[in-house]
Amino acid sequence: MSFVDKTLTCRDCNAEFVFTIGEQEFYVEKGFTNEPSRCPDCRRANKARRNADGGNFGGGGGGFGGQRQDRPMYDAICSECGKDTRVPFQPKPDRPVYCNDCFQANRPPRQYDRF
Ligand SMILES: [Zn+2]
Ligand SMILES: [Zn+2]
User: Are 88 and 71 in contact (CB under 8 A)?
Assistant: First the structure.
């Protein structure tokens, strides 16, 4: 079996493109019987479009917006200032619980330093 470069016409943009020997061999290897009907540019564009559609697929419903708020919150008393507060974890008697203000105040001051 011998191959020659074939010139084909893209059905999307009507540009002529070469179906090279290497590609023909590749097609035969993969068992494809059809010649490519689109030029490499259109093939790439098509694939990119498909990928983009696939990426958006799960986000279309818009039903997940409130999920973050479903986290249970626990009532607690701030160990620092005694204020009522709510924390996203079960408060433990042996561990101090801080309200937002005190939590900020107790944060190590150099936490966000960068060299
Ligand atoms: Zn094309
Ligand atoms: Zn506090």
Answer: yes
